[in-house]
Fold this protein.
Amino acid sequence: MRAPSTLPSAHLPPSVRVADYSVMALALILGGGSIVLFAWPGRPVLLPMGLSSGAALLWNATLSFVFFVQHSVLVRRSVRTHLAAVIPTRYDGAFYAITSGIALALVVVMLQPGGAPLFVLVGLPRLAVTAAALLAVCGFVWGVYTLRTFDPFGLRPIRDHLRGVSTQSLASQPNANDLVVRGPYRLVRHPLYSCIIVLLWADPEMDLGHLLFAVMWTAWIYIGALLEERDLIADFGDKYRQYRRQVPILIPWRGRVAAPGDGSVSDVARQA
């Protein structure tokens, strides 16, 4: 295997280094911080607006739709190709993380209460729902570990640039673009999405606003997964078509299924 080529990173202009570190910091703060806020259990209403129940539901749906548009449009390859004309390629993933973080933070901060609870689970049902949420967290961690090259904030290309590693040489290494599947990716094609859906529904206290939120986000995740697979088919062709025929999209109703390739998964679960 050919060693990655290096560039004279020590001679990068200070302004370039400052820009690289600034973009990485923004991606971590906005991308990671918004996820922490979103996952905050028992999160209070951060910006109460005094809306009626009906108005709150409409407002929350609008916020969700804005996030869906941002998240789904910017992930499309055609859009990223156009952005590459104005944004350095190494910032592609970080830019996506920053804009997604801003959109998600707006959802979290401006989300309004959806009225009185429809139900409140207690006793064994509450424990069962909590256990399902914990299993979903474990499944998400398993999926991320399986990916190994998972880079949710788009930091790797920027770090490579600072270290002087040529991303072109990395991409040209043998097997860099092979479809390889293992772990939870033999159960479902999008295990990270499956775990997020479980977390959306695994709440022992559900009001109408949360119910609408869970329905909308579940539908969006499913549609987003289908759109994402169009790019994956473009990348891997018949290999991914075979994988799609063998492995369910979100629900592991077939159990563990043999799939093409061995080893780690890199591009199979590219994030939406």
Summary: The CA atoms of residues 173 and 193 lie 29 Å apart. The first helix runs from residue 14 to 38. The first strand starts at residue 117 and ends at 120.
